[in-house]
Amino acid sequence: NPLLSCLLPSIQDKLDSTLWHFLEQAATAAQERGWHLYLVGGAVRDLLLSRSTNTILLQDIDLVVDGFHQSADVGAGVELANRLREIYPQAKLSIHGEFQTAALLWHKDPNLGSLWVDIATARTEFYPYPAANPEVEASSIRQDLYRRDFTINALAVRLTSPSEGELLDYFGGVLDLRSHQIKVLHSNSFIEDPTRIYRAVRFAVRLGFKIEARTEEYIRFAVSSGIYERLRETNHPAPALTTRLKAELKYILAAPYWKSAIQLLDHLEALKCLHSDLVLTDQLEWQLRYLSRWLKILDPTEYLEHWLMRLEVLIASLKPTERVKIANYLQLPKDSIDRLQQLETVEQEIQQLSINLKKSEVVLLLRRYKLPTLIIIACRSHPENRRLIWSHITKWSKTQAPIDGNVLKKMGYKPSPQFKEILDRLLCATLDEEIKDRMAAEEFVRSHYPIK
Ligand code: CTP
Predict the structure, then answer these.
(1) pLDDT of the residue at 170
(2) Is residue 149 in contact with ligand 1, taking CB distance under 6 Å?
(3) What's the pLDDT tens digit per position in 26-81?
(4) How far apart are CA 111 and CA 109, in angstroms?
(5) 93: domain CATH number?
(6) Where is the chain membrane-spanning (predicted)?
(7) Which of 122, 145, 174 is the last residue of a domain?
(8) Do 95 and 119 reside in the same domain of the chain?
(9) 113: alpha, beta or left? (left if phi > 0; alpha if psi -120 to 50)
């Protein structure tokens, strides 16, 4: 039985008034068509969790339309979205025919800020085979909630009358919110959708919840069944699942809690969903720690994609032959795939690195590689090489010779391919402190390259 309680006043208090007004408009439009409208998923979870009396910022809202006495027509969600678009012409409307859902988007709107509202018709999803994309059919709100991932995400608040404000909690979500549990609704959940393992971990770490014991068993069963490997190897059903898996990985690896999330994934042996050999060894954990420290200092504005580099370090721990397979499977950007592909060769080349080399030799060796490659190599290197790479990036690679090509011209040298050689030798001599100032540099050039 649904737990009856009128939540509307407390929701209204916690929402920004413009957003609240939008929900009222949506409810009225649904009601006029003889439908019910529900606020579902993460928004309900977060509203119930929020203890603060301040308004909470919701940027992502899920609404579900359902019929009054029978299921709504499959197109109801899309029709409602179209109507709301008339009321809010500044919103962008996008429709996903396949799933019969529509989304209204506001980008930095003066009143609503950046907001994404998904509107779907209550639906049942059939998974024609494990991890497939669901096939969709109109259904009642209960069925719609039953297809969801965790009890805490399977709550709905009715926005239409009668009994507006009623909280629908068919699966014990409120109890699990109170007892801080992540719990699936049925034993097949992870087989149907492997990305839910990553979601379970994400919610557990983010909210400070525990994965309920039975749910953990289901995760372990799903992982040990080898289903993910078979999916990967046959590359079936491919794109959509991979995209969702990558999105979840990004979410986890970009979050401030990424370290605890990886540790929990490893504890659940769920890194094996990516590759059966992937385990978080102490060594790998150290590499990730170095990566974070380096990125914090070398790339504070996050010009590089830190989450992706974390993923690359994880993948780099696999055998060279497996790295590119996984990178391709996850459809990583070309740069990442190239880096992982070249890693073995680069690491062999870097073996020449030693503290006995002159600074100039280090620079000539390392300047061939781009910053992300150097950072990843450094994290995987032994301390001596790591120190050399650090010095190269932070100091030596920025060194300039006291004179440049213009000075060479003034000295009477004619621009030619030899210029580069001269400038390189000057740079090396500067790095190795054989020359310190302009006079010494000019002297150096004249003695090594006399003008005929
Ligand atoms: N959902 C699901 N299975 C998935 C992804 C999503 O059942 N693999 C359902 C959940 O009910 C979830 C809702 O779809 O609450 C919306 O998904 P999403 O926006 O990804 O998650 P939120 O719960 O809103 O989480 P967040 O606050 O992190 O965005």
Answers:
(1) 94
(2) yes
(3) 999 999 999 999 999 999 999 999 877 778 888 899 999 997 666 667 788 999 99
(4) 5
(5) 3.30.460.10
(6) none
(7) 174
(8) yes
(9) left
Ligand 1 proximity of 56 Cβ (cutoff 6 Å): no
Give yes or no: residues 49 and 131 share one domain.
Answer: yes
- Which residue is closest in CA terms to ligand 1's atom 25? 42
The protein residue with its alpha carbon nearest to ligand 1, atom 20, reads 42
Contact status, residue 431 vs residue 360, Cβ threshold 8 Å: yes
* Sign of the torsion formed by the C-alpha atoms of 423, 429, 432 and 433: negative
Mean pLDDT, to the nearest integer, of 239-246?
82
Atom 8 (ligand 1) nearest CA: 196
Atom 23 of ligand 1 has which residue's CA nearest to it?
42
3-state percent helix, strand, coil for the chain, nearest multiple of 5 = 55, 15, 35
Mutate to test the pocket of ligand 1, among 45, 46, 56, 60 (most ligand atoms within 8 A of CB): 60
pLDDT digits (tens, 9 = 90+) for 243-299: 888 999 999 999 999 999 999 999 999 999 899 999 999 999 999 999 999 999 999
Residue 419: band (very low, low, confident or very high) from pLDDT cuts 50, 70, 90: confident
Q: Please tell me if the CB atom of residue 101 comes closer than 6 angstroms to any atom of ligand 1.
A: no
Picking from 224, 241, 274, the residue at the C-terminal end of a domain is 274
The pLDDT value recorded for residue 2 is: 40
Sign of the alpha-carbon torsion through 100, 136, 118, 31: positive
Degrees, nearest 5: CA angle 232-339-195? 30
41 ligand 1 Cβ < 6 A: yes
Is 169 found in the same domain as 68? yes
Q: Is 323 in the pocket of ligand 1 (CB under 6 A)?
A: no
